[in-house]
Write a structure and sequence with these properties.
single chain; alpha+beta; globular
């Protein structure tokens, strides 16, 4: 499952995805591969998009 979310200017795509993960799913640990944790983050003003997979181990340092 993939989620498409908007990001405000000045908020990194990873932070926008983490905010949704925490606020909407009430999850605070790093997700597993089987979780619905892939977000397409669209920068609201430029329309630029980036795909963020929160289960990717490179994001582990951002999730306490």
């Amino acid at each position: 499952m993939r989620w498409e979310i908007d990001s405000d200017e000045g908020v990194s795509p990873v932070q926008a995805a983490l905010d949704v993960w925490r606020e909407k799913f009430l999850r605070y640990e790093q997700p597993d591969d089987g979780d619905a944790c892939v977000f397409t983050v669209i920068e609201r003003f430029t329309g630029r998009s980036v795909e963020i997979d929160l289960s990717d181990k490179r994001h582990a340092r951002l999730i306490p």
